[in-house]
User: Fold this.
Amino acid sequence: MTRWGMVIDTDICTGCEGCVVACHAENNIQTVGEEEAAKGRAMHWLRIERHYEGTFPDIKVRFVPVLCQHCGDAPCEPVCPTYATYRTPDGLNAMVYNRCIGTRYCANNCPYTVRFFNWHAGDWPAPLDRQLNPDVSQRPAGVMEKCTFCVQRIHDAQDTAKDEGREVADGEIQPACAQSCPAQAITFGDLNDPDSRVAQLARSDRATRILNDLGTDPSVVYLQGENRGNQGNGENTP
Amino acid sequence: MRRRDFLKATTLATGVSLLEACSGPEGQYLVQPARRKPGSPLPGESTWVPGMCQQCSAGCGIQVRIVDGNARKIEGNPNHPVNLGGVCALGQSALQELYNPDRILVPQRRVGDKGTGTFEDTTWEDGLTAAVETIARTSPDRIAIIGADRSGLTGALWRRFSEALGAPAPAFVEALELEVERRAAQIVLGVTDIPYFDVSHSDYVLSIGSAFLDRWRSPVHYTRALAEMRRGRPGRRGRFVQAEARMSLTAANADEWLAVRPGAEGILARTLAGILLSSGKIENDNAARYRKLFPEDPPRLEEGAALCAIPAKKIERIAAELAAAENKVVVAGGSAAGHQDGLFNVAASLGLNVLLGTLGKPGGVFAPASFGLEDGIAPKTEPTSMAELATRLRGEGPAPVDLLIVADADPVHTLPASWQLHATMANVGMVIVLSSFRTDTTLLADLVLPLNTQLERFDAVAPAASIGVPVVNFSEPSVEPLGDARHPADVVLAMAAALGEPIASQFPWASFPRFVEARIEEQLEQLPGSQGMTASAFIRLAVERGGIFGEEPPSLVPPGPLDSTILTSEVTNTDAREDGEYPFLLLPFESIKTGDGRGANRPWLQELPDPMSTIMWNSWLELSPVDAANLGIQDGDRLSVQSSAGSLEIQAVIDPAVRPGVVGMPLGHGHQDYGRYASGRGANPLDLVEQTQVIRTAAPAWAATRVRIKRLRSGALSRFGRSYTNEEETEDIPVGWAPQETSRYASARPLPPDLTQGTPDPGTTELPVVKRRRLG
Assistant:
């Protein structure tokens, strides 16, 4: 059985946010404007968290791209009264927009804060609407949305493979974030296929998962980098 | 009301509303035409068209997804040597340049007062006639031209046009420090343009001032190169050290950040050189070449350490690491070039490459390479510097300016306000601006000629930032043009033709594509892969591939120092002087969001949280917590910032990674007129920059302005998420396939042995989880 998963190498991720714009472009994510953004209503299915450690000049920075972790035991799923969010057989945490009634319980329950509520419908003044991706539905006001692992791309690759009478090849599916990444820090594939690139990377001794001890069983694996930043070897304190 | 009446009324009302629903905007319900051109995609079918990115001078190759004739997505071209498939935030936002609701789509003629931006539509015919008549009746020495694309084919046509008219050479708007970097590279490495730094094959990269991951010359290329350096060679991870006064995105990604005192970057390089020279690990030839270039004795370690404010033991260790590394390179530029002593700073840093012998070595520094398609088109005279042009506009040159042509640039916004372009342009008799958008410059225009965008035109561009192998990008239109806009080169050709002899005969090409074809035809034999092909067939092939690329890897060895010397000038380190009236040094920087300002009119980029400050939809001033506490400033407070050149209001961001005494501010915000998403948003740090120049160049010393700060009132900024500065919350990322402890912040550790051997199967791994009841 397939389990879609992702490995992000934080040693080479520079936090350039190419993936964030790629995600907006691919998934027709609306921009909400300054006022709404100030209320915390900006939607970034994928965000770059920036963490400072230490104080000047012994300070270091860590960037962590955070998206829906497509948990194996997702805290958002059991709280949905309408089953709008559920786990698919191939390991995606899916979201059915037209079942969602906007209780926002799922966002409350998500420890990764990666679910976003449409307070308003998206506004695309013409001709900006011509850039919209026809493969992804626009969400109306009042529903939740979040990273789908670019499910439209997964289905597209599966359809193509089926037409050609073969299996989907490893690396054939690239979510928008992975494809755009200048550093190629993001790898996507089937975690349950031991030979897939993503499963090999997930076996690395640098592999970690975020908040795993909550029992969420995330499908996104992070490869930790070297200890970046000033070394804190006492050179700065004469 | 009776039941029957009620039913009647409701049926009627429902019917009317249904009818209304059907008569929505027509376009929404238009059925696709039954007939299509043979070979054209089916309705809803998606095709990928190769193209090139022109959002900065790096020249990445892209591919554009087209569905139903509209561009839907931009991805990188994996076979392009500049970006290898990657694409940055700014590059992807080119869709919102193309489909921006605020584009200028037909020529505009000024009807109101100058500076009010009141225009009416006109035609290309009338617009060009007006332009040509003005050119014909203006004395050539009173014509001034400002262009973009200094080194490319379009730039070459502007230079040729200018010479044909007998007018002074055009000036080109480019990154503020580029002139300094180019000059330093010329003196130290003997190359004519910015060299290529082979980061991917290096074991040790020391970057002095250049924020090469933020924007600088080629952010996508260097991001990939850094990734290759770290993880591309199993068992061999290079080390990257960044010396920069402000913690840029690049510094944040370094293995070690040296918070050098701003303006003292050159001293740091010279101090390192001093240690290296006395270490006995430098080849004699290299040492002799270096000594010839820098005849003075380098500063002593303690002295140098005190001047650049880096501990002596640290400098010593870095010198030892540099000497010991097999492949190494010193990258220089950026803010180090923006100080009054910028030329010395960059030259001294690049000089370390001469000393370490990295010229033409793997992982070292290479000369820029080009096919030279523009050779013979551009005249030999060097372009005018922007500073000189500003002097002419101020009436301080030999003749005043009566006609100004600005092509594809917004100099009023991207150059320091102290150059007074805004005030002086208002006095120029006729200002013609070629632009896709209303900008601060078009506000002062008499005639605006609309330019098409990168996805709507045929183009051939040699990227200004070399990657060590020659590259010329080719692209054809990906989509039908939105309006009646043209390529700037086509405007030059049209004006030249209309001006008649003797100018017209120097431009014998009917259009820009014909011009490119003629250039290719002339040089066909020297271009790789052209055997047995005609020029047009070769161009078609180049368009399909995205361009013509030279052989990799880079191989051009820089010739080395010219026969000149570089002395430490007396102003060294004055940028860091203690100044009572203006206690802070202002460091403007290019952010990934806006670039030089062109990204500000795209909602995706405005709503993109800056990776360091997490600010959206605004600009900000970064200051250290120490300074903030002294001035009683809280995060988000509204501040007044003043320099001797100007003042502005802006919100504060307290950033623990800023050097005390330094304040940072992003460029590219504070547009007066740049569409609904950018106008009046944030502030432009160039309003504060003084009119000082980098010594021995005409470039502005944009990182040398001192400011004072006053708190006005409390305020707020739009931020995404939280920033963590609290010790407790900043430990290692919580982790592990099957952690034993239940602490939320368990530290990183190797996987349990059973999992490192087999496939991790999270479904069957037993986890110490809190059991929750599942619904349903």
